[in-house]
Amino acid sequence: MEPWLKYAFGAQAGLLIGMGLGRFSYTPMVPVLIELNILTEPEAGYIGALNLGGYVIGAIVTPRLSRRFHEAWLLRASLLTSLVCLIASVFPFGFLWLGFWRLTIGIIVSVIMILSIAYVTKFAPKNRVALATSIGTMGVGIGIFFSSVILPTLLAHGVFWGWVGSAIIGAIATSIGFWAWHNAPSLEVKTIQNIKKNINLSTDGKKLIAVQALFSIGLIPHSIYWVDYIVRSQGFSIEQGAFQWMLVGVGGILGTIMWGRLADKIGLNVSLIIVFAALASSAILPVSAPSWGMVVFSSFIFGSQPGSAAIVAARAQQTMGGTSMVSLWRYMVISVGIAQIFGGAFLVELFNRTNSYFIVFFIGGMSMALASLICATLTRPSISAQNRY
Q1: CB neighbourhood size of 358 (10 A)
Q2: How many CB atoms lie within 10 A of CB 234?
Q3: Cβ neighbour number for residue 173 with a 10 Å cutoff
Q4: Most exposed among 32, 223, 361, 375, judged by the fewest C-beta atoms under 10 Å?
Q5: pLDDT tens, 299-316?
């Protein structure tokens, strides 16, 4: 197997266990955890916040870790730590216990996101970089699919089996990741010259950081209110709402690859404009002209959002030239985490005050639209850069 494809599957395994299971498997468990008095409602919310806060902490400490340890070793250690977090979550020892492990896996997923995607974008051939990155980020979609299809069945037998199921899939992902990162080379020779090149961000680099922050804000309405909007506002059944969340998982698997193939064919800049415009439409249209067909469209396109992260990552590597994109990608991950924390608090408070799904989803859609406009101003890469990536 080609090294770049091996690294893409390694990234997929890491993001499956860290992001897919580490973040999205928690949401359907919350009602059961509260019902069994393992957590109170406020404690369940605090643990979700700890996970998001860990994501920012991980982005901050990753460069220091990568200077001290080989990146492939860090990825294997992160996979093993993530698995320990999932196994530890099986035991019902209350808020502090679960909060510690959820914070830890939040930190770890940031390390996995930064380093694994940097490997994929650096080593993928020029005509496969977006596809390779999409394969990696597809791990998020697989996790969403698991949380919407398999996990509810396990939870019907108790929260213990929900955590056990997550841990088993995490163990499989860890074994794949260990295979993928075995004997992987260092991302780059860490010379003083390279460190300086990484610190000086270009205008395009700064634009991509802003794009990631807007992207993060744009995801919040669907992440929190989508099923609630379908059921309570549109009058669909709980089963239909669950079907739509399953469709989000399908979009995370199929749609991510769709965007990656498109980017490899028509170019990264144009693809970014299209994908963010599509994500904007998926937020605004269902609340402007609600119908079952529009809801299906929105679920699938929103689910495909890991594909946009993949194309942004490929464009970040293009911006950095032959140098590893770790420094730029780190700032982009930090911007995602901060935007999630502050944007989430703002939109939740706004909804509580207005009780308006339209306002919340419209703001999310406009964030995606603004990201699309910024992408339209990105520098067109030179022929030599296109040939490299």
Answers
A1: 15
A2: 16
A3: 27
A4: 32
A5: 999 999 888 888 998 888
Q: CA-to-CA distance for 184 and 180, rounded, in angstroms?
A: 8
Do the beta carbons of residue 138 and residue 253 sit within 8 Å? yes
Whose tokens are 């108790």? That residue is 158
For the chain, the first-to-last Cα distance in angstroms comes to 20
| pLDDT tens profile 55-76 | 889 888 888 888 889 999 999 9
> Could you tell me the two tokens for 336?
């995602």
Q: Which residues of the chain have pLDDT under 70?
A: 27, 188-200, 322-324, 381-389
Distance CA 133, CA 116 (A): 9
CATH code (residue 130): 1.20.1250.20
- Domain span at residue 68? 3-388
C-alpha separations of 197 from 186, 212, 258, 324, 343 in Å: 17, 21, 33, 10, 31
Beta carbons within 10 angstroms of residue 63's beta carbon:
15
Q: How distant, in Å, are the alpha carbons of 14, 20, 279, 305, 325 from that of 125?
A: 21, 27, 27, 23, 16
* Cα–Cα distance for residue pair 318/311, rounded to 1 Å: 11
Return the axis-axis angle of helices 3-15 and 71-88, rounded to nearest 10°: 30
- 194 with 320: CB under 8 angstroms? no
Query: 358 with 234: CB under 8 angstroms?
Result: no
User: Is pTM, for the whole model, over 0.85?
Assistant: no
- CA dist., res. 103 & res. 97, Å (int): 10
Give the total number of structural domains in the chain. 1
CB atoms closer than 10 angstroms to residue 109: 28
